[in-house]
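Box 4.2: Ligand-aware structure prediction
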Amino acid sequence: MKASGTRLALRIALTHLLAKKKQTFVAMMGVTFGISMFIVMISFMQGINDFFMDLTLDGSPHIRIYNPAKIDRPPLLALRYDSTSNWLVVRHQRPKNEAIRLKKGVQMLDNIRKMPEVQQASPQLATQAFFHNGPIEFAGNVVGIDVKAENQMYKLYEKMESGSIDKLLTNREGIMIGERLAAKLNVVVGDRVSVTMPTGATFLLKVVGIFSFGISTIDDTRSYVQLQTAQKMLARPSDYFTDMHIRLKNYRTASALAPGLEHLYGYRAETWEVANASIEAGEMIRNVLTFVVSLTMLVVAGFGIYNIMNMTIVNKMRDIAILKATGFESREITNIFLLQSLIIGISGGLMGLAAGALISYGIDQIPFPARDIIKLDTFPINYRWYYYAAGLLFGAITTVLAGYFPSRKAAKVDPVAIIRG
Amino acid sequence: MQTTTSHPIVIEAQGISKTFFDPNPFLVLDHISFQVEKGAFVSLVGKSGCGKSTLLYVLSTLDTEYEGKLRLGGELVTGFDQDRLARFRNEHLGFVFQFHFLLPEFSALENVMLPALKLGKYSAEEIEVRAMEKLRLVGMEDFALKNAMKLSGGQQQRVAIARALINDPMVIMGDEPTGNLDKKNSLIVLDILKELAAVNQQTIITVTHDQEFAERTDRILQMEDGKLL
Ligand SMILES: Nc1ncnc2c1ncn2[C@@H]1O[C@H](COP(=O)(O)OP(=O)(O)OP(=O)(O)O)[C@@H](O)[C@H]1O
Ligand SMILES: [Mg+2]
């Protein structure tokens, strides 16, 4: 009985919609526009988010453990004098001259590699350095790495422009240089490059590879050597390193793990989120933008439907009076008009999804204008089924809301007032 | 049903009054009381503006703003909520309005079918067959598939009569149901209604200005200035 009532309401709703095709089409286009905009915005913005996220996680550790130079130690005077009852002024306090190494790093590395959450951990000894091209010096840095571990973590082999990782593995004198730095130094694989350490010592190394991360700040300054080579260049023992990079099985667990590591080893454990706070800020801004633009579109579409439904109901006063007089209940009257609004919403929404997918695909084909700064061929677009599900859901919600109030008004029409004429 | 010789009362109005406040309060219906028996064909006559339509809207349960009591088929419908009244109308009342009122987007046949589809007593196929029968009764079967808007005034009125009959209602109410019809068709409708009252024992109350029409019905209710004479 109830199902037949809904079917009847649907039949009347469809008849009404088909009787004014043009108006129905215009209302549908409003929804189509709103939803397609939502799809394009979210696909594109999330595409950018994911691209930056991948880029970040590709080139930086999930957790980085290092020994921060302690500047904020209490002044020695404070130990002699009670600082709560005396004024102590120590101007421009310097840090102690202690090595910023990770003590017992080798054992720490073993332990961390055994943790179940950890995929790989790699020691690093990073230092500033000057690279020479004839009389000109370029500032950069030399990173001593455990080549195998580092390669696993950052897929260095994928980033090689020329030369090979294996050469670095076997050559104690070998150095791998970032693409842009190599260009500035005017070197290719097989050439020699002279590097001056902060200690003043200068070394002549053989270029075994040139890499590109696609991030200009890295490609412009970074170079890799074997960990042992870096230790030798800085005249440090073979268990000396300053950083440890950790790659987790799931990068989302980083902030949960980091405090434990800090507590256990007494060093700073910095997660990728902290190190790349600007990424998160950018992501948030893009999310807000997506939300605001989509919402505006949907609200505009909603008002369109609201208007059209209101007009429809004014035009259909006589019909409503007849339906009520011949026995239709208020709920069924509401349904007739709510269904019209819903049909506009769903069909407009479906067309919006199709249009959104098409436009997204179109954007996906546009070459990215700054290809030499960021490794990106075309504008990034994410295709996720749940964007489309959300789009359809929003469309349905908007139209139901927009249709609800006019439909309620329809149900309240007093048939006598109209039939009396 | 009809075991007793005296017919049961189908319409019972008890002291029905209604006041309009536009612009000054005036009593359109002034303590109207009467009874109509099952199977009776009653006509309601009176000068224009005396309150016939207003009374009919109260009797048809469309207008609920009145004082007094109304019983239809023995049930006290005064005080029913709107949805219950709608269901009651759908099942028990057929109505032909003073101005022909059809749904413009639908065909004549669909207009007749809608109240039956709403009632849901028969399948859609059966309803279509029954609707065709009713259209044949008023001589409109040839126009069944024509859009309601494209029918003449008299044709629309006949479709409206067919629609009022579709659920075999206990009471059929008409506000000048033959107002737009020529003499011949008017007499045809009169005969149909007479037969429904006599054979199907359906109760009929119609407003009419046609003296001849009124005289052919079982009983005449005369109204004047909101009072029943
Ligand atoms: N909504 C209203 N507000 C105020 N007065 C009204 C309203 N509707 C009708 N009236 C008045 O009530 C009186 C009765 O009207 P009604 O329509 O019942 O007359 P009627 O007997 O059906 O006349 P007719 O034969 O011309 O159809 C008239 O004087 C009319 O002007
Ligand atoms: Mg009247």
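In the box above, the bound molecule is magnesium ion. Chain B is about 35% helix and 25% strand.
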